[in-house]
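WARN  no MSA supplied for this record, continuing single-sequence
INFO  ligand: 2-acetamido-2-deoxy-beta-D-glucopyranose
INFO  echoing inputs
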Amino acid sequence: AFCTSVAWGGCRVSRFVLVCPVPAALRVAMRESSLEAVRGDSVLLPCSFFTSSDFSRLNVIWTLAPFSSPGSPVQVIVYDHGQVIKNPSLIGRVDFTGLPFSADIMLNETRVSDGGIYRCMVNNPPDTADPGVGELLLSVLEPPSLPVCDWDGAIDVGGSVRLSCSVEEGVPIPEIRWEKVSPVEISLPVNMEGELSGSVQIVNVSSQTSGLYRCSATNVLGTENCYVNLAIYNTAPGGPSGVLPGVLLTLVMALVLLALLVIILWLHRTGQDGRSRRRRRRGDRKAEEEECYNEIRYTPSLMKRSFV
Ligand SMILES: *[C@@H]1O[C@H](CO)[C@@H](O)[C@H](O)[C@H]1NC(C)=O
Ligand SMILES: *[C@@H]1O[C@H](CO)[C@@H](O)[C@H](O)[C@H]1NC(C)=O
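INFO  complex generated
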């Protein structure tokens, strides 16, 4: 090597070779640029460095810019003057594995919140760092949690029902799917509400709507399901057929109305004295009509639900 500057000043001739005290450079090399771990597993974050000096003044700093707050990196672990200092929230989970020859660290019982960009900074004076920093992206994956299925909507035949499904956890974000699984398997169009919940709208409900519905939350690590069982009856449950109870109810109502009519006619015939009583009877009749009307309203359909 030629000395390009006399400012270095220390060149000497040794056995016909020009020898200059060139300052050594420390170089950091990341053996991986990105890593994936499954939540709960251990992961080794590699950081190699090359230096020509001894390790007496070695200094290593690992920082993390978490995915949740990339703008505010935190210190993970530091090696300085022979001492190791750990982030209090990581004590018991992180340690150097190869000091002083490598700056690798091991992270145990990984959590999703450990995901982010890790930087490994190494200094070893008097070496100059060139560059003394390496970066590594860590993703911590987790399987979907058990989704929660629910439904709401109109219970009458011809009404509409909404099936909803939401999942709390999962990295990558789980895909939500709705299917009818019995009596026939059909895949249903899902309306996503945010990233973690999806619903299905069923309009014009009929007895054909009855069946078992499954919501599945899937990512690369697996699938979790929840179910809704819809049973839609055209009659009151337990009735032998859809027609008979309705017919009976109509007959009963007709008889009551007929009786009232007879009473009113009879009161009318009895003359002036019957007026006050007649008014009272009308009131009774109105109340009875309301009662019957309510009963009819409940009759046409009944929907049962259950969660599995
Ligand atoms: C992490 O786990 C490994 C092996 O499972 C163990 O040897 C190491 O001591 C653990 N590190 C910490 C900081 O607990
Ligand atoms: C609802 O369904 C019934 C039978 O399933 C059908 O006759 C009717 O036309 C449907 N109504 C609408 C609005 O789709």
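The longest strand covers residues 222-233.
INFO  checksum written, moving to next record
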